[in-house]
Amino acid sequence: MEYREIGKTGMKVSNISFGASSLGGVFHSIKEEEGIKAVHTAVDNGINFIDVSPYYGHLKAEIVLGKALKEIQRSRYYLSTKVGRYGSNGVNFWDYSAKRAMESVYESMERLNVDYVDLINVHDIEFADLEQVCQETLPALVELRNKGIVKHVGITNLTLRHLKYVIDHVPEGTVESVLSFCHYCLNDDALTDYLDYFEEKEIGVINASPFSMGLLTERGAPDWHPAPKPLQELCRKAAQYCKEQGKAIEQLAVKYAVSNPRIATTLFSTARPEAVLQNIKWTDEVLDEQLLRRVKEILEPRFRDTWLNS
């Protein structure tokens, strides 16, 4: 396992890390005991960064993760959760007020069975008024950072330009990390356009969804996926090509995502212990450059497709 620092936070994290969204049954129903075992398997095999949100499974992911963390020594992992995006009784809602952000942190700590959070993120800022994020949400989190309740502060989003906007409109040092998803994977590397900027600001980069929310899998994209059909078809073609070469496209996708040293870590999500071990194994394997070139050639006509709205 390779470890890299998230910006200047001092957190040296495994280059592949555990996203706990699956523990909330976000993708399909889970067995709670198996999900708890998946967390233990990750930590026991060198993964030391875990990311979650009260939004995932409408609190369920934090509750299940909390049961797992109760049995793991606190010094063995860094924990990241979020504020701003929530859900209850099957209904999604958003609240980026300072009051709700502070309340949410304490509620998350109780569910997670911890007395501090290593990294607190403003979740999916594209759903927020960016001025409120800059003037209200982030200052509230900085206040908690000053008190030691949270150690570091970050922001997450799909639309990359929003990350830059917020960083440019808050005091230096407010934002210590960014979490971007679907923008550093086989079919889209738009995140690389911003790496110089993030490094100049000494902001760490966390990558998520190396499978592009299911596009880069043998199973293929789920029905709700926003990618246009031509891109989905090319991804299926790429997956089939990998299979014909005796490889899984998931294997190539993971290895590609974790191989950029300028990105601290890449999050994957599963509630199955065997899938945790498989992702770690793929991370440790040598990148097949020839296969990567051919897959990129297949995907090139729809590379950086505009559905991602970078």
UniProtKB/TrEMBL annotation:
Residue ranges of domain NADP-dependent oxidoreductase in the record: 16-299
Domain of life: Bacteria
Transmembrane regions listed in the UniProt entry: none
GO cellular component, one term: cytosol
SUPFAM superfamilies from the UniProt entry: NAD(P)-linked oxidoreductase
Database matches in InterPro entries: AKR, LGALDH-like, NAD(P)_OxRdtase_dom_sf, NADP_OxRdtase_dom
GO-annotated molecular function: L-galactose dehydrogenase activity
Name assigned to this protein: NADP-dependent oxidoreductase domain-containing protein
Source species of the chain: Bacteroides oleiciplenus YIT 12058
